[in-house]
Amino acid sequence: MPDPTDFLPLNGTDYVEFYVGNAKQAAHFYRSAFGMEMLAYRGPETGTRDRSSYLLGQNKIRFVLTTPMQPDGPIAEHVRKHGDGVRDIALWVDDAEAAYRETTKRGAKGVRVPEVLQDEGGQIKISAIAAYGDTIHSFVERRNYTGLFLPGFVKLDQPDRVSRPVGLKYIDHMVSNVGWGQMDTWVAFYRDVMGFRLYQHFDDKDISTEYSALMSKVMANGNDRVKFPINEPAEGRRKSQIEEYLDFYKGPGVQHIAMATDNIVETVSKLRNQGIEFLRVPHTYYQDLIKRTGKIDEPIEALEELGILVDRDEEGYMLQIFTKPVEDRPTLFFEIIQRKGSRSFGKGNFKALFESIEREQALRGNL
């Protein structure tokens, strides 16, 4: 039963669109390394003159990689400023017009008034509002559409000989980094404008190392299908990973995307074999792991060999691992997560994880 008090009911994440410098080559990376399948294309050959876009998918995860066809315009400017990064976290709704109306009347800045797109598959309604930095949220209504994805995209006929799926299922959460003192502003935005609630929060006592600290609040929508942790830097002796991100991304943006799997050992093994590099924690992390987490199903040796972290809460446990940044700029990275009852975000792993991030920062000369 839908919640009658939820003015912005969401069915989940519809897709994530990245603006990138070379979508064809980026698509090859996400196919060969992450096992995403090439599903559809939009570009000059299909009647779209200003951009090329590739739709990639794995189970419920959909990524759109978009590149500009000319050196000027908003897509090119986004890439020039930020490097490759997330432009649009699109949300699946039953009514794109109502979503736009309810959010803009509560203070959201509209960036795309409700619009109908159509082809032989029917009609899609889409609208969009601005979020932090240059990130937007599109609202996508699909109830009158039976096509592949969106009008303008065409299915690719040739088989995908590059993609080797790794068992990624859906987007668990997406984390944003915002500037000094800005976290509560964006917490209020998701609460007041989009009807989210505070799901969990962590302060600089929870997330700190010898050198740096950050604060984080997790916002969730009414049915918990969409979760957005929001990070801001906190005072520390050195530059935090959030500050490094903001310096190189040139403003707030999506820091990482967490993708869920039912078998993290198998998924991470495949990803590693396909070239994905992961952060590592020291051997000492695993020495008293069972004492910290209690009995788990997975062999400790396999977790240590791959670098997978474990944390437990009152509802169960979870396993997680983080890639190194997937851009040359130290900005976007990915998390692989498997939940076994736990609905938390790995608070017990923060210190070990952030120390491993700082070791990478130091190698880049940015700590």
List the helices and strands and how they pair.
Blueprint: E1 12-19, H1 23-32, E2 37-42, E3 51-58, E4 61-68, H2 74-82, E5 85-93, H3 96-105, E6 110-119, E7 122-130, E8 136-141, E9 154-155, E10 168-177, H4 183-193, E11 197-202, E12 213-220, E13 227-234, H5 241-249, E14 253-261, H6 264-273, H7 284-287, H8 289-293, H9 300-306, E15 309-313, E16 316-322, E17 333-340, H10 350-364
Parallel strand pairs: 1-4, 5-8, 10-13, 14-17
Antiparallel strand pairs: 1-5, 2-3, 2-9, 3-4, 6-7, 7-8, 10-14, 11-12, 12-13, 15-16, 16-17
Structural summary, described in words:
It is a single chain. The chain is of the alpha+beta class and 367 residues long. It has 10 helices and 17 strands. The strands form 2 sheets. A 9-stranded mixed β-sheet has the order 6-7-8-5-1-4-3-2-9. It has an 8-stranded mixed β-sheet with strand order 11-12-13-10-14-17-16-15, with helices on both faces. The protein has helices spanning 23-32, 74-82, 96-105, 183-193, 241-249, 264-273, 284-287, 289-293, 300-306, 350-364, and strands spanning 12-19, 37-42, 51-58, 61-68, 85-93, 110-119, 122-130, 136-141, 154-155, 168-177, 197-202, 213-220, 227-234, 253-261, 309-313, 316-322, 333-340. The chain folds into 2 domains: 12-155, 2,3-Dihydroxybiphenyl 1,2-Dioxygenase, domain 1 (Roll), CATH 3.10.180; 168-364, 2,3-Dihydroxybiphenyl 1,2-Dioxygenase, domain 1 (Roll). The longest helix is centred in the C-terminal third of the chain and has 15 residues, at 350-364.
